[in-house]
User: What shape does this take?
Amino acid sequence: MSARDERTPLTPGASLYDYAVFRHGVDPAGSFPLRGYTLPQGPEGPDGPPSPPPSRPRLTWPEAREEATAALTGPLADPDPVRAAAAVHRAVDGLRLPDRTIRAVAALIPLADEPAARRTARRLTRAGTSGTAVGVGLALLIRLGEAEDVPCLKALGLLRELRPQAAAALDPLDRQAAALLLLAHRNRDQALSPLIDAIAAHEHGTAPGTGPGGRAVRDALVALVTAPDWLTATRWQARRIAEAARLDDLLRTHPEDTGLLTAAGRLLHAMAAQHNARVDVLEYGPAVEAYRAVVAGAGRRTPDLDHQALLLSLALDLHSGTAALLDWPAGEREAQLAVLERHLRAAPAPSGEEQPRRAAWLRRNRLRPFDGPTPPPHLRLEVAMDDPLDHPGVETRILIDGRPLVPALFGDGPAHPPEHLLDNGELLAGPEPREVQLAEADCTEGCCGALYVTVRRDGDEVVWGGWRGAAGPPPPELRFDAAAYDTEVRRAGADRSWSWPARSTARLITAGLRERPELRARWDLGWIRATTGWRDPDTVIVNFLYRPAPPEPAEDTGPSLMFEWQLPDDGRPPETQAGAALARLEGTDPKTYARVAGGNRELAESLGYAWPQPG
Assistant: This one.
């Protein structure tokens, strides 16, 4: 008979906290439950299926907020936590609202007496018997929690349905514990399981021979971050991985461990990225200490292509990326960059036999972070391209007195590429004010927003103001000498040193199309643009929209088709390739040689075009 069978089950009505402690106690060796324990539900036992919520007409968010606020306000002001918790239980049971709605209201509800609400929250989390009531307590402890709440929050985090809320309440109190819960919650493909198991064993003292900076945690961390699928599988959890593994402790314990230093550098670079996630490096407390350790150990590893690429990525982050916004002591960031510059200058030129695209990126960009003017001017525009193995993104970094502007104001996406901000003169100040979108969330503006500024000329100055989409209060106006401003915008727009052949070809095609607006009318195109492929940056992609004219001018706009014309780099100079592409666009309807990439399938088939196959 197993230990679990020998234990007496909890009596009905036991608190969820007691239930979590009980479930953990009967697990072999108290192991950390990767998937979490399910909440006890009804007469079917602790692992039974949840009962469906009672049906009712769906309320709008304002209606639901008003109803839940009215139900919770009175109990949360009661100074007696036992009575208040019982009242909360009764109130949420009668609301018939989704749990997430009730938790959201509890997280935002105004509190007339915070100490009383804290006592009630503790009573709910320790003695609550329903997930909804305990969820209210957790939502309150996100705001009101203190160090003494950590053990209870860790226990409730073992319950699958409460894990995200417990982690949120733990986050300001114990980052490592919160990170471990979140990694377990997000471990859908089990890639994080070895690291989570090693951390949990180390934290509970069940891994023999592990002390501070335990070797098992180090080994699991290095294996995870140096795995071939690191970039696609788990890099978006970089900050939480570093926090859960106590990366700062590991670096202090193993300062000369080249494998650990490489893993730390990769984690820092992933945290500093602005693609598809918030800029996590600004939320990582030991970031400056970790950069110091990685840069100090930069010369310990053989300067092969992979190591040089990592050093250049870190240098770009420190020079013009998000890492420049960390709280560096005066002069230290520049000193760290000087060390990276010394190593990159001394490293042999990469041959690129196995990774030619990456080697070419390194040759073009290896000294770009170190070639800017000193001291930095008021405005500096620099185009930065990521390591092609990491992320094929290109952005226009806007530096104000040497500090990057976009990540300081907007955390959900990088600045736009030069084709958007420089090639078409968007940043040049004209006679009328013009609003310019500097950055957009990777998930689209409609989801997570965008950053806008209005550019105008005021006498002999150019003014940036009228900000929209910035995090926090609106930034102040920025003023630039107009002559110096125009010179800098044109200098950055003319700089092609960062670019690769296919990208240069795409930019030349775009410029040629801008000079030939009649081509759109000639071939009935709504728009046409050229860029490089996301999966294959050495291929130019020309996209255009075709919408047949409606039979009657008064009719609404009809269906449309999007076409794609692929132009792999053939080794000729970009000017030659772009000229050939423009000549073909002038002489032959592109719909006859491009392929349909999307739009209205019925229209495509009626016109005899093949519909794209999935994948």
